[in-house]
Amino acid sequence: MIEQQLLHKAYRLMYASVCMANKYEENRSVCKYVHSTSLGHQAIQLAVAFQLRPEDWVSPYYRDESILLGIGMEPADLMRQLLAKANDPFSGGRSYYSHPSLNDADKPRIMHQSSATGMQVIPATGAAHGLQMLNKPGLVVCSLGDASMTEGEVAEALQVAVLHKLPILYLVQDNGWGISATATESRVMSAVQYAQGFPGLTAIEIDGTDFAKCYSTVADVLQHLRSGAGPVLLQANVPLLGHHTSGVRKEFYRNENELQQEAERDPVQKLKTSLLAQGLTPAQLQDIEKAAQQWVDEAFEAAQASPDPDAATVTQHVFAPTPVLEEKGNRQPANAAAIPMVDAALFAIREIMQQHPEAVLYGQDVGRRLGGVFREAATLADQFGDNRVFNTAIQEAYIIGSTAGMSAVGVKPIVEIQFADYIYPGFNQLVTELSKSCYLSMGKFPVSAVIRVPTGAYGGGGPYHSGSIESTLLSIKGIKVVYPSNAADMKGLMKAAFFDPNPVVMLEHKGLYWSKVPGTDAAKTPEPDADYIIPLGKGRIVQAASEAAIAAGESCCVITYGMGVHWAIGAAKAFAQQVEIIDLRSLYPLDEAMMYAAVQKHGKCLVLTEEQQAHSYAESLAGRIQQHCFQYLDAPVQVMGALDRQLYPFMYSLNRLCCQQ
User: Fold this and answer.
1) 3 state DSSP class of 283
2) Torsion of CA 356, 510, 535, 504, to 10 degrees
3) For residues 295 and 291, what is the distance between their CA atoms, to the nearest angstrom?
């Protein structure tokens, strides 16, 4: 039996949500930013919110304002986000209404939430995975609409949740709509029916408009999760009583008969009828309603009076500050043996995992049996166990997106995409979740993740194992990209990437792993000591030109990275002491000072890349150099890259021709 006080609280918050929706409609000229409300969904949302604990995590979607009210947020808090105010507690005026991020000690935590439907399922599952790894108390509630269940990334998350028996509730609020598309015209099964294909995923369907029934069902579900019995999918059937959004209005695509039928399922009216039947008088109900209305009216006035964001803050929180600001440790210890790049990465991760129990490594084939297709993770599972070094399925989206949830709960993930050519299924998570989390959460949830990506043409890799992706990656704001060319840099950059609180993509050239490509012996270096670390954004002068050549105007600089460094070293042998070679090492952040100083010194510059030249990162560098160093140039900046083709042919000779080696 639910206590009357709780029922009264539920009615007050339900009625407040109605008052809020009405307030927004009455003030459309003020509430000009797009928003959705929880009308019709309030009962199930409150039933869940009331039973969450501060150690829990919730991943709501854009219609979950009643969850926010239920965990203790004030209407004024939500309205400040609606009106994009500076004191919006979630995003400081940067994100939409009901797109929360919350790290209050007395409430369930909420990591950054995006608008993309279904995309929160992978980070939420990653959070549950992280809680289990760290043996932390708490569970995760991932809330989503029924239409988003058709997203392929949802299937990736469900696979992992069942495989590892994660403490996560997938709350599917089924209102039968996907904007204007009905369930019958757009999908063949409900969420509960879909869940039957995942043995071990408990699936329950309830009437999401009956608060008492929702509350008791959720109580059982949460007890199931806290006992370690595995994930649950709860489908709550609800009406959509409001608009899809303030911009896509219900009258655009729904008729009066449909709206009237939906109104008969209104959870607010159902709870009101129940309370009257239980002895609450109409006057008492009216008092609750008046108090709720006054609460909302005062909140709206306070939100309107709140200050707008200061334009000067727009560049804040793109990244969280990194603790690694200078090069430290011994790059070349006495008597240190030369090692290949693949071992440098392996040894760096081994040292990290020895010192940091929160560090984990996962991806395709990195586990105990193989240790990576390039042996780049060999022996790590033997040393640190299958809980910290493990295989995933072929799930690029989960591999990348799960790091957002892992990072939020305190895990430090190092993950691997097996080949650069296959990173694209993970781009949705990289762009939508990881790159925006720090900025839109006002720094509350930067994503600490190292994403290793073997890249580049090597041997007969052919059209699907030879690609270079740096230009595509560098179009994403909010991530860092590094590209070592030798073993010492691999180790120093790997350490810096791990300690950086932001997402860092480590591009690792397959042809440099073992120095099997002719002319790449310089990629092998003595192993730096365990303390060696290189700050991101610092280039390295690999080779200097002589002062005599510079004075005579007979020198130039080559600006490059990765395999390009070794091509430049080989080509420079024909121009003794005339060529300065700059290894960028870090593509973003970029050592612009070193780059411009070299160009100003020599007056002639070649930017060298393995990527196809047209529309590339290298061409953007050339443009930037010419903009900043125009008065120092003796000739236009030249760019050299691969042939402008969409792929690398399989045949060795054609592959090499495309690389223009």
Assistant:
1) helix
2) -70
3) 6
Q: Which residue has the tokens 């006057």?
A: 283
What is the DSSP code string of 373-412?
TTSTTTTHHHHH-TTTEEE--S-HHHHHHHHHHHHHHT-E
**Chain position carrying tokens 């303030």:** 246
Please state whether 375 falls in left (phi above 0), alpha (psi between -120 and 50) or beta. Answer: left
From the list 115, 92, 93, 91, the residue with the least C-alpha distance to 101 is 91
Tell me if the pTM is above 0.90.
Answer: yes
Residues 6+ apart with CB under 8 A from 345: 376, 452, 490, 491, 494, 508
Distance of alpha carbon 332 from alpha carbon 324, whole angstroms = 20
Joined tokens for residue 617: 């990162």
Residue 98 to residue 61: CA distance in whole angstroms: 7
Question: Could you give the CA distance from residue 352 to residue 357 in angstroms, rounded to a whole number?
Answer: 9
Sign of CA dihedral 190, 192, 193, 199: positive
Question: CA-CA distance, 453 to 507, in Å (whole number)?
Answer: 5
Tens-digit pLDDT profile for residues 493-542: 999 999 999 999 999 999 999 999 999 999 999 999 999 999 999 999 99
The total of other beta-carbon atoms located within 10 Å of residue 547's CB is 10
Residue 456: which residues within 8 A CB-CB, separation 6 or more?
420, 466, 468, 509, 510, 511, 512, 562, 563, 610
Quote the DSSP letter at residue 575. S
Residues with a known catalytic role: 465
Three-state SS for 639?
strand
d(CA 614, CA 90): 41
Residue 290: exposure state from Cβ atoms within 10 A (0-12, 13-18, ≥19): exposed
Q: Which of 648, 649, 614 is nearest to 640 (CA)?
A: 614
Tokens of 641: 């890259």
Token digits for 431?
Answer: 């762009």
Percent of the chain beyond pLDDT 90? 89
What pLDDT was estimated at residue 646? 59
Q: What is the pLDDT of residues 51-102, one digit of tens each?
A: 999 999 999 999 999 999 999 999 999 999 999 999 999 999 999 899 999 9
